[in-house]
Amino acid sequence: MQRSMWPYLILFSGVLIASTASIMIRYAQAAGVPSLSIAAGRLVIASLILTPLVLARARPELQRLSRRDLLLALGSGTFLAGHFASWISSLAYTSVASSAALVATNPLWIALASFFFFRERLGWRTMVGIGLTLLGTIAISFSDSAESLQPNPMLGNLLALIGAATASGYLLIGRSLRRRLSILAYIYVVYSTAAVVLVVWVLLAGQPLFGFSPYAYLLILALALGPQLLGHTALNYALSTLSATFVAIALLGEPIGSAIFALVLFQEQFAPLQLLGFVLLLAGIVLALQAEQSKG
């Protein structure tokens, strides 16, 4: 296997693992865990698991970290905290499909930020890919809202969009830092920062961190081990060699994976418009992949 294919395979694996997050979050919410507590618990556990590994392998690198890179990593972690707080909260108000699809609109925000702030030119295939993925997102959202039985789809969709915007900041900063920092040093600072921000947020909101059932804590542990440590770390690894725009577009495969898991576990059937949206998302990802490979 060619070495150049590894980042794509790792990215695909990360997206697949991340697709399970929506399902586990729904289970945790049903078990009585508030959304902010889920987000905080997920990042706290992930950071604690990483600590001994980082002390053994990345301590010198962290000690040499420049002030600029440290501030950037803290900013990335703050964006990540905002992403999880808003997106996980959205799942309490709207459907898994709409939440996952709308939070994946970050290619639009990243493309706009790259154009206006970094003067980055985007190829025509990337632009068409972004257009297709946005059309797919709109189709999925309309399909869900037409037959929605969720508590407050409008609020949930807005929170998901906020989650997309904050995830864009996280990915853009990560793209810069991952060129200079090892994956272990980077994710430790970012995940730990997000954990601290979320714990403070939970305390200020007056929500609990303890007193849940063992089943609920198992779900939070699974979120930390799977979607966070394996899924997000795979995405951050891919950022060292792939563009933030392409990684963001590949993440649009997450709502497809989430919907498939929902079909298997909850027997949720696909509506025709929803299925069309998934096809458009996949087409956009393929075009973006071709554009990324043509750079090499």
TrEMBL record:
Gene Ontology cellular component annotations, sorted alphabetically: membrane
Keyword Cytoplasm appears in the UniProt entry: no
Domain of life: Bacteria
Domain EamA stretches: 6-141, 155-289
Gene3D superfamilies per UniProt: 1.10.3730.20
Keyword Transmembrane among UniProt keywords: yes
Transmembrane parts of this sequence: 40-58, 70-90, 96-117, 124-142, 154-173, 185-204, 216-239, 246-266, 272-291
PANTHER family: ACYL-MALONYL CONDENSING ENZYME-RELATED (PTHR22911), EAMA DOMAIN-CONTAINING PROTEIN (PTHR22911:SF76)
Family statement: Belongs to the EamA transporter family.
Protein name: EamA domain-containing protein
Species per Swiss-Prot/TrEMBL record: Candidatus Chloroploca asiatica
Lineage: Bacteria, Bacillati, Chloroflexota, Chloroflexia, Chloroflexales
